[in-house]
Design a protein that fits this description.
The protein has about 260 residues and is mainly alpha-helical. It is built from 5 helices and no strands. It folds into 2 domains: about 180 residues, Up-down Bundle (Substrate Binding Domain Of Dnak, Chain:A, Domain 2); about 70 residues.
Length: about 260
């Protein structure tokens, strides 16, 4: 009877371990997917911010140019009136007015684009979604750590109810993440492009990590090699000094003779 109870306890422990490992693996997989989503949102934010920044900067530059042209026109007209030069004031005014009008049209078009595209509102929404996803990534990580802590430190105390509570919380996180829609801001082409960027980014990070691991493993070999070289140099210096000393002794003996 006692053997049967031990068998049941072992089976239950193994079953809990299987459930916890599966849940932990599922959380890790979800974290990677959410990080990919965060990467895409960040890329989308950079895309819209770049457009908004460039358009706004061009608007400021053109507005400054219009102000400069108007001031320059007044200076030139004043100079013409004082010096009575051959330049016609009417022609100058017409040229300046046409130039200012053209720049004004461009400024109006750019301002309309900013209002029509709603760059500012999109940036605010993307920033908010970024914050939400970062918050839930931290929650996923916390749940994963709590799950591993419960199993490693309190495996005898952990119950199926505790595991079920964690499952329910993870399901709530999944629902919140799925409701965070980013497709409305991006085309299919953008999503494919950003996923390629993410894959290339991960590949580069992995490559750097592998190189660092290789360099760390190679450090003891280099240290040993340097030690051997230093020992060889030290022996060589001692032999050289000894040989030099013997030569000096022999020279001194010859002088005495």
């Amino acid at each position: 009877m006692q053997q049967e109870n031990n068998h049941i306890i072992i089976s239950e422990s193994q079953n809990k371990k299987y459930i916890i490992d599966k849940l932990s693996s599922s959380i890790s997989s979800t974290i990677q997917k959410v990080k990919t989503k965060l990467f895409i949102i960040s890329a989308a934010y950079d895309k819209f911010y770049k457009k908004y920044y460039i358009t706004t900067l061009v608007l400021f530059i053109l507005s400054s140019v219009v102000t400069f042209i108007e001031a320059l026109r007044l200076i030139i007209i004043e100079y013409i009136n004082k010096n009575e030069t051959f330049m016609n004031e009417q022609i100058l005014t017409t040229i300046v007015n046409v130039l200012v009008l053209s720049i004004g049209i461009v400024i109006t078009i750019l301002s309309s684009i900013i209002r029509f595209k709603n760059y500012r509102e999109i940036l605010e929404e993307l920033r908010e979604k970024q914050n939400i996803i970062i918050e839930y990534i931290n929650k996923y990580v916390k749940q994963k750590n709590d799950l591993e802590f419960l199993y490693n430190k309190k495996r005898d105390e952990i119950s199926y109810d505790d595991i079920e509570i964690i499952k329910q919380e993870i399901a709530e996180y999944d629902t919140k993440i799925e409701s965070t829609n980013i497709l409305q801001y991006l085309t299919t082409k953008d999503i494919i492009k950003y996923n390629k960027y993410k894959a290339n980014f991960d590949y580069k990070l992995k490559e750097i990590s592998i190189k660092n691991d290789y360099n760390m493993k190679d450090i003891p070999t280099k240290i040993n090699k340097n030690k051997k070289q230093n020992i060889f140099i030290s022996i060589y210096q001692k032999c050289f000094q000894k040989s030099k000393k013997d030569i000096q002794i022999q020279v001194s003996e010859n002088e005495i003779i």
